Amino acid sequence: MNTNRVSAIIDNVNCYGDLHDLTAHRPLAMLPFDCKYRLLDFQLSNVINANIQALFLLMNQDDMQSVFDHINGGKEWGLDSLRKKFIMHFNKKNQEGESEQDFVSHVVDYLRKSGSEITVITGSKMLCNIDLKAIIKIHKQNNRSMTVVYKRVTSENISCDNLLIDLESDGNISSNNCKEELEPTEKYNLCMDIFIVRTEWIIEVLENCDKKVESIIKILREKINNISCMNYEYTGYLSNIYDIPSYYRANMDMLQPSKFNSLLYSNQKIYTKLANEVPTYYAENSVANNSHFASGSIVDGTVVDSLISRRCKISEAAVIEQSIIMASANIGKNAYIKNAILDKNVIVDEGVRIIGADTNPVIIKKDSHVTNDIVNRRNV
Questions:
Q1: Cα 149 from Cα 189, distance rounded (Å)
Q2: What's phi and psi for 74, nearest 5 deg?
Q3: Range of the domain at 34
């Protein structure tokens, strides 16, 4: 076995009902972020920046089209290189949400063929820019089977399905499911679902686990209380994407320079699919204040505290405030949009108002044509 070889598994098999309006046509990992990125870009970039040469990407089968459209040949992340072993596996589930096939055996086969000493296993909903190379180096210096990455966060960054960990005096950790009510002012140790493990150990664990298990992340969570684990505290930017408000907050965070720079302009680059388009055009009477724009859009109206994706048209006298507008939206004249998330290809007619709340933004589904006002009365 090559002691310098590291493999990686990105486990994207998860669904969140609270995000269904945005994930009906895509997996959570393919959600757009900050105009031009996808959440998956961050996991892929973290792996590639650590010079990991073998990658296994596990997805749900019914989500595969958007994954292929984005990754394509994988050139942007160097996945097309002959030096890298890149496998995408799509896990088919039945109507009850249970796995219909033994994906675990495919993972074990991949790990054996990788010839690696260490394996990095990460989930898909923790948005971060993390130096995996440094954690791998620390992990190699200790004799424990697993290193668990965590971050101290407040309750708004924690969902009911998350795992919290306690740091023991002897250096070990213990875990507890997040079931009790959390204090809003307190900080908790959130398990980031990033694990560094010895490859031989995880192969043994997978060979003895239930073959109908939902995800590898779930298996590793259950092992925390049963083995001696090392902990690693991550101190950079983190957003835990688990519902509409958390997704909205994460995007709005990018309008704050300190958080934007921490996530996207740290020592590691975040890679994404390239789009060779013309720059966004701003008409003479347009107004753009504290907003991000991708390429290919036409701005004739006013955009404040918002994120505008590629190929959008914002017509004359239209006003957009504190909103996320995804690709190819067409906003009519005199329309007013505030605290809203518009999915791809949305058309908003002239003079229409779409108003949500900052804690509960209005969601307009993909390919919708909005002809009448949509107003959250709590925000008016």
A1: 10
A2: 80, 15
A3: 2-264
